[in-house]
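Recap quiz, item 2
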Amino acid sequence: MEGASYQRFPTVKIRELKDDYCKFELHSTDASLANALRRVMIAEVPTVAIDLVEIEVNSSVLNDEFIAHRLGLIPLTSDRAMSMRFSRDCDACDGDGQCEFCSVEFHLRAKCINDQTLDVTSKDLYSSDHTVVPVDFSDSGSGIENSEQRGIIIVKLRRGQELRLRAIARKGIGKDHAKWSPAATVTFMYEPEIHINEDMMDTLSLEEKQGWVDSSPTKVFDIDAASQQVVVVDPEAYAYDDEVIKKAEAMGKPGLVEIYAKEDSFIFTVESTGAIKASQLVLNAIDILKQKLDAVRLSEDTVEADEQFGELGAHMRGG
Amino acid sequence: MGLKQDPDGPDASKQQEFDIDKQFLAAPVKSVVDKFQLLPEFLKPIFSFALYHFAHIRYKEVWIGKPSTSIEGAVIELTPHNCRLSDLTYAAPIYVNIEYSNGQKTPPVAKKNVFIGQMPIMLRSCCCVLHRKDEAELARLDINFICILNHMVDITYVILIQEQLSKNRIIIDTDKKGCIQASVMSSTEATKSKTVIKMEKEKIYLYLNQFGTKVPIMAVMKAMGMESDQEVVQMVGRDPRYSALLLPSIEDCASNAVYTQQQALEFLDKKVKKPQYFSASFDKEGKAMAILRDVFVANVPVRQNNFRPKCIYVAVMLRRMMEAILNKDAMDDKDYVGNKRLELSGQLLSLLFEDLFKTMNEELKKTVDGTLEKPSRSSQFDFSRYVKGDSITHGLERTLSTGNWDVKRFKMHRKGMTQVVARLSFIGTLGHMTKISPQFEKSRKVSGPRALQPSQWGMLCPCDTPEGEACGLVKNLALMTHVTTDEEEGPIISLCYCLGVEDLALLSGEELHTQDSYLILLNGLILGKHRRPQRFANAMRKLRRAGKVGEFVSVFVNEKQRCVYIASDGGRVCRPLVIADKGVSRIKEHHMKELLDGVRNFHDFLREGLIEYLDVNEENNALVALYEGEATSETTHVEIEPFTILGVCAGLIPFPHHNQSPRNTYQCAMGKQAMGNIAYNQLRRMDTLIYLLVYPQRPLLTTRTIELVGYDKLGAGQNATVAVMSFSGYDIEDAIVMNKSSLDRGFGRCIVMKKMSAINQKYENTTSDRIIRPQRVGPDAERMQILDDDGLAAPGEIIRPHDIYINRQSPVATRGAMVSPLTLTDKDYKPSIQTYKGPEGETAVVDRVALFSDKSFNLNVKFIIRHTRRPEVGDKFSSRHGQKGVCGTIIQQEDFPFSERGICPDLIMNPHGFPSRMTVGKMIELLGSKAGVSNGKFHYGSAFGEPSGHADRVEAISDTLVKHGFSYSGKDFLYSGITGSPLQAYIFMGPIYYQKLKHMVLDKMHARGSGPRVMITRQPTEGRSRNGGLRVGEMERDCLIAYGASMLIYERLMISSDPFEVQVCRKCGLLGYYNHKLKISICSTCKNGENVSTLKLPYACKLLFQVETGASVNEYCSPLKINRSMILAPLVGTEQFRPKFLNSRFFATVNIFALLNVFNGPYLGRVDWKRPGCSDSSDYALESF
């Protein structure tokens, strides 16, 4: 049996890169890898999030669990998360998860003393570790600086109300709780390949062309003002809705356009919660994916299962 | 144009809301006060007391003070909130000014401010502290809604609106046999009676309770002075057909030799039922005369023995009957809303009050008589000291809390008039206020009253009715409905005469029914006739619109009956309509502008005659156009808005007019179970159970009703992104698949708050309970962790099951001689702690602790325990379209499908929910919400709102969707989260408002291995709350028998239930006993132990044998053959012989019917008990199945 090599060499082309946003193309691979990457980004890239809250005083309108839940969902800068330990396998502390290797302590003290409502926000959280702080959105925006913006609101206090608490943030993954997921949006789409049958298109009048172009809910096609030719302006805007194809059929011109999804290239959109940079999120995901594959490859089960898997097992070990 | 934008106006909305409330608010207390204003009428007899003939008391004025209570002499003003917290009745004192004379010939003494009782106050009524407070002020006062609050427990009661047939109106219908009858339910301040005139075998008879048998109507007429048959015929009408129908009755009368009034009275006297007690008036005038005067059609007054109005009334009744005989269409429909009256709390309360007031006066008379009889009195006689308010206070409280209205005078014994107000959700509370309870008992299997009546249009909600036995009988008010209260008749009567009504007294019988005239009736009473009825009606209406007559007076010209009905009585339902002159609406553009600007409001419109209230009858004279554009020159009115035909509950549904109708009905029931916000003061309330949502939202697809009732501020649900697709197989049968990340982020998260209370009891020997410092060391220390040093659980502490939340001790001796509490030592107290019983393994938090003293001055402690829950598999959710489903599974977000925009649904719903349910409204809701989130606007879906712009059209929604890059159809191209490949189909996805319903797995989950047993039968207990067993019932048992799984039956019904070993004598077959001293078994009948064997039986079986022995029935057991003594066997099956315990339930064991089968076996022909192969003698008690 001659084992055909399935090895491919995926390439990545970065289109856009911002702190919390990243758009890239992934070529020469298939959906399984693209999806694995997406899944890891959502569920398995570790971050740090508040996990334990000790409330000293809470006279606010929201109850303790409510506030604890809100605190947990605040994204914390987690660049250090990859090197941190999970508190469950931390050997520096006896599993209580309160040592510097596996946790970060936060304090919050807020009291409203005047008649104006006091907004307690993520900026009122004081961290014991300057590398792990609540995500600050105010200066990340490239546009207008908004001095009013004061972080993520936790609770509002009226005169006399007070909130005092200690919170412990720990490393975790999105699979356990969504608060540890660094990804706000991770999605991909197949890159569409659009072929307009120019000959057939030429048979259409301008109104017909316009009608056809307008039939797409997204702006994929347009009419070139000079040549009055239908051109593809943004293939990625195409949402695989088949509207233009149906329209063409309704016009009695089936085959006017042919649209395929390129099965080996994907356009990824990654938005981060701010916990880690979007680019780092992708890199971490790749690292974790590798680790996981290593774990499969090196585990005893795999060796034992060699007989069962035969070629595949050897292939996996061989890399 | 028109009133299209009407509800837009902020003032309009407030006004309409106010209108909904008004009927619950204004009525009760005021009408009681009104009643007092009528006092001289019904309390005319000055109280004269037995000995002192001149002693009397006279009530002058009456008023209700501020809600307050007196505690140890100090008067404390009450607010509803304080009452709720401290279990007090929200009541206000009733004061009177009296004038009395002590019987000496001295001038009467006046005394002011005499307290006669406490009146429970309806919230926001005119006596309530919340009266006329606007929303902001209410919020500041931390108090909210409507209702009467009541005693002992912090329960608020609502007096249901009662539906009844009209009083004092002639109703023509048929009896069971098909005879046509005219009936009148007369109800006056003094009496209540029912008069029925029936046509039987062509003769007409009167049925009246006071007459033992039916009475020929002509005899009655003669007895009332209508000696001339001709006059009767004239009164009924000169149409020969009428006289032909009357002829047999006239002949019948003549055959009885009744010609004169005297003869007629004598004839009737014989028919009178023997009175149970002897009354003076009966004797003097002849009984029949008195009955005819006071009971027979009592609503027609007889002044100075002038029976003529009554005769005419009877003649009109006869005429209507005959019309119905000649033409079946003239029959009245009992289910017609115009023939119904809704009794509000005010009417009910005033009835009750009247009764209690009379009782109080009787008591007063008795005590005063007693006092005055005593010869020597040192102090000045003071009447007011004998006026005791207790009977009124307690009477009112008792009636309100039990809901049993027992008014002796009116022979009223009604149950279930009040209900504990549903505080589960805001909509539930509001919906409860609009509920109308039926007059019929629910068990009747009739379809007529349950059917939707066309006359319900705009008055009663067509959707909101429960399922099951009360379906169609329990109704709810529509949004704009107003229920009238009684209005004074006097001014209307004189007005009618001014407008040219010819007085009845001046008319001869002949003139009554002339061709060119109509009869004028006011509240069922004939005033006279008018020659130009239409003109008269128009004049009345004009006066009403001008505000000269009450706005709720209705004028109805009935062309068929040639009558004009004027109604000013209470309990009619009516609704506002825009007046149109020849098809042109009176509301012009500038009016609407002023409304929007807040310059004018709804009431101004009413006052200016732009809008008027029409009741169901008057609607028949109106031609109402749905929209102004559809008006023709005949149109008299224009609808305000079509969505107002729905009530509050149905008003929440977006696009209800696109749904299959039962779905809307289901939603009306389910909306009341939805969790969310219940009130602005929800976190300050100490209710026994509150369900709250952590992040309640306002629906993306809203309706005008939602805005009007304030559901947008107190929502009960969340906008979930729903993908309609099949996923994982855990979504069959309406189950929904939920996204774990959504749940992590707070979707469907709820707070359950439960109240626990404890009383620090005082005892008769002056000792009392004590709450002491907790033990910090020792065996109980761990369970006392959450206690503060004061012995009470501290707010904020985490409480687990079996934790102690109050460390209380009770004295050992609580009775007998007085003991000073100071002398008691620790030894004299025994612990009486209370422990938290919650779901095992779950923790909750002590939210609040409140201390207060109750009525008997015991210290009460209330603990609120809070439990935050996230949705789990089995929790129930529902959209607003009657589509409920449980959470089938929870799946990680990465496995969920996603779109190329990165949108991932919160939940997945199976598309099979759509075809059979036909909830198109839900689909439109999804589209509309999706468009709403795209363009940042709330879309509307009010019922029938498309033409007026209160609902968005699908076309417009689709355009919005396309504009934002979605498919017009609402479908998205999704990728599988598991494989990453595109899904085969486009998925219909968008936000739908989902409600979390109160049914949660955590509260229902139940399983048991071994556990508690019932004392008498030794079988497992029943019910989750008692950690009971699961019953193998008769049907399950039958299955096992059919299958032949005898060992399983044996195991289930005996081993796992109540196995017991008995000693049986093989010789006599009776039960013996085991003597532990001698270590032998003995048969007590044979007096020896020679033939005794042991036998396993279910304990319940042994018990049965013993109970039967007590009833001298003996069961004989034999190892070879089951023999029974048949002496009394057949009797056991009958009720009289069945011991009481046999009626109780038997669990997971031989149930009693099975046992009786054993017993009755031979009689039922089941002789062959023994199956081959079952020889083990210990089996046979069960084997017999």
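The radius of gyration of chain B is 37 Å.
Chain B has 33 helices and 55 strands.
End of item.
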